[in-house]
Amino acid sequence: MTGKLDQLKTHLAEYIDLNHAVGLLSWDQQAYMPPGGTEDRGNQIATLSHLAHQAITSADLGRLLDDLLPEAAQMDPDSDEAALIRVADRFYRKETRIPTDWVSRFSTASTLAFDAWAKAKRESNFATFRPFLEEVIRLRQEYASFFAPYGHIYDPFLDDFEPGLKTSEVQAIFAVLRSEQVELIKAISQGPQPDATFLSQPFSEAAQRDFGIEITRKLGYDWTRGRLDVTSHPFTSSFGQGDVRITTRFDPNYLPGALFGIIHETGHALYDQGHAPAYRHTLLSNGASMAVHESQSRMYENLVGRSRAFWKFFYPRLQTYFPGQLGSVSLETFYRAINKVIPSLIRVEADEATYNLHIMLRMELEIGLMEGSLAVKDLPQAWNSHMQDSLGLIPTDDARGVLQDVHWSYGYIGYFPTYALGNLVSAQLWEKILEEIPDLPQQFEMGEFGALLAWLRKNVHQYGAKYQPQVLTERVTGSKIDPTPYLRYLKSKYGELYGL
Amino acid sequence: MTGKLDQLKTHLAEYIDLNHAVGLLSWDQQAYMPPGGTEDRGNQIATLSHLAHQAITSADLGRLLDDLLPEAAQMDPDSDEAALIRVADRFYRKETRIPTDWVSRFSTASTLAFDAWAKAKRESNFATFRPFLEEVIRLRQEYASFFAPYGHIYDPFLDDFEPGLKTSEVQAIFAVLRSEQVELIKAISQGPQPDATFLSQPFSEAAQRDFGIEITRKLGYDWTRGRLDVTSHPFTSSFGQGDVRITTRFDPNYLPGALFGIIHETGHALYDQGHAPAYRHTLLSNGASMAVHESQSRMYENLVGRSRAFWKFFYPRLQTYFPGQLGSVSLETFYRAINKVIPSLIRVEADEATYNLHIMLRMELEIGLMEGSLAVKDLPQAWNSHMQDSLGLIPTDDARGVLQDVHWSYGYIGYFPTYALGNLVSAQLWEKILEEIPDLPQQFEMGEFGALLAWLRKNVHQYGAKYQPQVLTERVTGSKIDPTPYLRYLKSKYGELYGL
Fold first, then answer.
1. What is the interface pTM, i.e. ipTM, of the complex?
2. pTM here?
3. Across the beta sheet with A236-238, what order do the strands follow?
C-alpha cells in the first residue's frame, strides 16, 4: 500500500512540477517578458501543458489508481491518504474523458476568440466577436457531452471550479440572494450619497506600494515565500507553498484600486501559503475550490479591509503616506467613501452590495447559452435587459456591456458563480470567527491580525484541497453554502451606513 | 523527406521548449525567486531536465534519425537541412551514451559538492571540499569512459562545449600563447603603472544602470526582445530569439564591474538575438560553441568597450552621469585606468593581458585530474606552484586560490578553455572586420556601431549552431583558431600603453 501510494505521489509530482512551470511561464509573461517573447512563450506553455495532460491521463496512473481505490475504500475517509487518492482519481477521471483532439480544437478556437474579443471590445462591436464566440460555445456544448449523463448541462462546468457542486444548489442560493439584494440596493439608492471624490486625485505609486506592503506584512503574508509585482491584471500565482506571488496595478490618480487589490490578493496568497506542510508537492496543496479561494480574498478585501476597525488602525498610517491628500479627511469620511454603494455597469468596479447581481446575470446567460435557449446573436440584448432588471441600468455600448469581461473569449463557463459564492462563504466563515473570537474588531483596531490568520489556518488553509467546497463549508460553519449570513452582513453594514 | 524532417522538427521542439522552460526557471531563481522557493524550484528543474533528456534520447528520435541520415548524406552539406540533421544526431548520439543512473548519481554528487564548495570557500578550507571533489572527479572519469575510444581523455569534455575540437589542438594553441603572454606581462610590469584609484569611489547604481542601458542601445541590443535584471552572478539567458535577457550586478563603489559586465553580456545577447529567423524554434538557434559565444562577449567588452575610439564617444556621456567623480579626469587618464595591467590572484578580476594564463593553469590541472596524474589531495599545491610560474604570485589562502571558481563543484570539466579560446577568436574576427571596414574606429568615435553588428550578423550570428567552431572560424577568417592575432593585438595595444 505504502509502495503504491509513493508511486502515486511520484507520478503526480511530475504533473505538479509541469503545472508549476507553466505557472511561472505565465507569471513571467504578464510581469516581465519582453514583447518579442510572445510566440516562443506560446510554444513553451503549449508543450508543457500537453505534457502535463499526458501525465495526468497516463495508463500507468490509471492502473495505479485501479489498484489503490479498493484499498482507499477501506481507509479512514478523513485521512490525508484517502483524500489524496480521491483527488487524484477525480483529476484522472475528468481529464481522461476529454479527447485530445477536442483540447486542440478548443485551444485554437479560444486563442482566436480571445484576439477577436480584444478587438471587438476596443471597437465596442459585438458583431465581429459573434462568430468566434459561437464556435467557443459550440465546443463547450460538446465538452458537456463528454460528461453525460448529468443532472444539468451546466453541472460539468461548475464542477471544473467547484468540485461536487450542482447547478440546482447554486440556483436555489441565488434565488434567495437576488430578490433581497435588489431590494437593499433600492433602499440605499434613495438615501443621500457620501462624498468619495477625494479618492480620485494624484497618489504617488511608490507610496501606494509601500503602504500596500505594510498592510500585507501586518496581515501575515510571508515575504520570504512571496513577492509583489506589477501586471495589467492583478492575480496570485503559486509555484509551491514556498513561492506564492501576488501582483497588482497602480492607478496614480485613484487610491482604492491597488489598495484593495493588494489586500484581495493577499487573501488568496495567505490561503496558498497556509496549506499543511505535509501536503507540499502533492495535489492537496491547492485551494478547495475557486469559491473557497475567493472567500479568502474577499474576506480580506471586504470584511477586514473595508471595516471601520481596520481603518481605525491603518488610517493614521495612510495619512502619513498622503498628508496632502488625506490630512484633512476624517476617518469616518474615508470609511464612508470606500463603502459607497452605486449601481454601475462594470463588474470589476462594483461594490459589495451590487457585485453579486453582476454574477447572477452572467450565470443565467451562460445557462441559456449551454442549454441552447439563448443564441449568441441574442446575447447583447439579453445582457442589456437583465442589466435593466437587476441594476436599473442599460449599457451605453457593448464594450461596457456584454464585451466587458474576458472570460467567455477564453471559453471559461462556470467560473463567474465562484465570485459570488466566495462572498457568501466569506460571511459564513466570518460569523463563525466572531463567535469564537468576539473581540476581533478590537484586535484590528490595535493592528493585530494574527488571531484571524491562525483561525483560518486551523479551520480552512491547512486542509488545502482535501475537502470539496460544500464539505469544507459545512465542517467549519455547520451548514453548506448559504446566502443568509452574507445578507445579514450587508443589511447590518449598509443599514448603519445609509441609515436604513 | 520533408515529412520526416518536419517530424524531426516537431520532436525536437519539445526538447527545445523544455530547455527554454528550464532556462526561465533558473533565470527566475537567480533574479526574482523568494528564498522559500528553493526546494520546489529544485524539483521543477529536475523534472523538466529529466523530460528533456527523455525527449532527446527517445527511441522515436533514434528511428527518425536513422531514416534521415542516409538522405542527409545526399544533401548539400552546406544546407540548413543537412546541418539540422547533423546537429540533432550529435545531440542524440552524445546523450544516449550517458546512462540514466550516472546522470542521477552525478546530479547528487554535484549538488553536494556545490554546497561543500560554498562552505569551504567561505572558510578557505580545501580539506572539507576534497572528498566531494574526489567523488565528482571519479564520476567525470567514468563519464569519459562512455565516449571511449577517444584520442585523449579530455576530448569528450572539450567536445561538450566545443563540438569537434580536440585536446591536442588546444594544447598546441596554448603552448604558443603561454610563453608570449608571460613575456609580455614581464615587460609591462617593469614600466610605471597608471592611476586607477578614481574608479573606486561612490557611483550611484541608478546612474550606472541608465548609462549601461544607453550603451546597450547604441550597440544594437533589441530591448523589445530582452531586458536587464540584477543577479549576484551576471549571465545572459535566451528563451528563444525573441527573448534574450542579460543580468548584471552593481557595485556602488566601483565603476568598471557593472559597466564592462553589461557590455560583455550585450555581446552574448547580440549573438543570440541574431540567429537566422528561419532557425527559430530549432536546434540551430544556438551559439556555435562556448568559445564562439565568448568571442562575441569579449569582443564587445574588450576590443570595442576598452578601446580609445569607443570612449572618445562615450566618455563625455559618462562624465555627464558622474560629473563629480569624473569631471576633472581626462579621457586619456580614464582610458589608461580601464586598461591597467596587473597580475592578480583572481581570474574574474584579470585584465586582458593576464586572463588567458589563469585559464591555461586550470586546463592543465583538469587534464592532470582526468588522466589521474594529479590527485585531488595535491591540487592546492599544484595550483599554487602554477600560479607562481605563470603570474609570479602565490595565493595567500585557498579561497583566493584553488577554491575561487564554482565550476569544478558543478562538475564542469572542459569549460575553462572556452574563455581563452573566445579571446583568440575575437581577435581573429577583429582583424578580418578591420580589413573589411577600415574606418571602424572612426565610426565608434561618432557613436556608430551598426556596421560592426551588421558584419557580425552576416558572418557569425545568423549561422547559429550550423557550423562547428573550427569550421566557422575558418570560413570567416581563413584559418582555424589561432593565437597569433590575439598576441598581435595585445602587443600593439599594451606596447603603446606601456611604451614597450
1. 0.94
2. 0.95
3. A228-230, A244-248, A236-238
